[in-house]
Automatic annotation (TrEMBL):
<dbReference type="InterPro" id="IPR027449">
    <property type="entry name" value="KduI_N"/>
</dbReference>
<keyword id="KW-0862">Zinc</keyword>
<comment type="pathway">
    <text>Glycan metabolism; pectin degradation; 2-dehydro-3-deoxy-D-gluconate from pectin: step 4/5.</text>
</comment>
<dbReference type="Pfam" id="PF04962">
    <property type="entry name" value="KduI"/>
</dbReference>
<feature type="binding site">
    <location>
        <position position="204"/>
    </location>
    <ligand>
        <name>Zn(2+)</name>
    </ligand>
</feature>
<dbReference type="InterPro" id="IPR011051">
    <property type="entry name" value="RmlC_Cupin_sf"/>
</dbReference>
<dbReference type="InterPro" id="IPR021120">
    <property type="entry name" value="KduI/IolB_isomerase"/>
</dbReference>
<comment type="function">
    <text>Catalyzes the isomerization of 5-dehydro-4-deoxy-D-glucuronate to 3-deoxy-D-glycero-2,5-hexodiulosonate.</text>
</comment>
<feature type="binding site">
    <location>
        <position position="199"/>
    </location>
    <ligand>
        <name>Zn(2+)</name>
    </ligand>
</feature>
<keyword id="KW-0479">Metal-binding</keyword>
<dbReference type="GO" id="GO:0008697">
    <property type="term" value="F:4-deoxy-L-threo-5-hexosulose-uronate ketol-isomerase activity"/>
</dbReference>
<dbReference type="InterPro" id="IPR014710">
    <property type="entry name" value="RmlC-like_jellyroll"/>
</dbReference>
<keyword id="KW-0413">Isomerase</keyword>
<feature type="binding site">
    <location>
        <position position="197"/>
    </location>
    <ligand>
        <name>Zn(2+)</name>
    </ligand>
</feature>
<dbReference type="InterPro" id="IPR007045">
    <property type="entry name" value="KduI"/>
</dbReference>
<feature type="binding site">
    <location>
        <position position="246"/>
    </location>
    <ligand>
        <name>Zn(2+)</name>
    </ligand>
</feature>
<comment type="similarity">
    <text>Belongs to the KduI family.</text>
</comment>
Amino acid sequence: MTYESRYAIGPKEYKSLDTKGLRETFLIEKLFVEDTIHFVYTHYDRYMAGGAFPIHQKIKLETIEPLLKEPFFLSRRELGIINIGGSGKVEVDGEVYDLNNKEALYIGKGAKEVYFSSNDSQSPAKFYLNSTPAHHSYPTKKVTKADANKLELGALETANHRTINQMLLHTVIQTCQLQMGMTELKTGSVWNTMPSHTHDRRMEVYFYFEVPEGQAVSHFMGPMDETRHIWMNNEQAVISPPWSIHSGAGTSNYSFIWGMAGENMDYDDMDKSAITDLR
């Protein structure tokens, strides 16, 4: 287990950041380390984003004493997992769940022993992880793309035709506050979450993947009237504060996983911004 901790800042502090400062504060450049579980702990809603990358051995989700001060990781947390690699297994208190590519698993508060493994070291699983504080224990449950609530949004004419797979959402399973899903852009479409919006009662983390080699995504953030951009490569994540928009445009189509936490769980509770009002 490895980790880093990042404190939250507000929109006034954000305005003073240069490119380096912006990237150090919000960009998560490396999530997957061989045979390791790595997390970034952000003080926005105490959200944790990370990756488990088992290749040669089974790896265990351990507590992080300096941060969590609990006997085990999920003592007072819930965990969402989406596998973006080869097939693998997640073992939760002795029960084994097979996770293929783009399948999700929710683990509720109170699970004591969680292990990750790959079925084939030549095509290892890559488990993208999101975790939030939890007040109640809900059952562990696997969610496939077939189980997800699907939304078709945008159009090729506006370069944002995409499928939103709502996977770990309260309309699909029970969670305390964690919500996760996966958006897949169609060929020829590059914009996500456009028109953009903010939601002051929850924060979000975006994880970009399936970005073709040699291509990149420019992620836009900040208040609607003063946006900045962060150039991102494949399998990188970005922290989106509640006061910030979160939109991206790629030099190719791509996929991304969104995770949210906060006070509300209404997916459509947002303050929308007209494209022509962005600054």
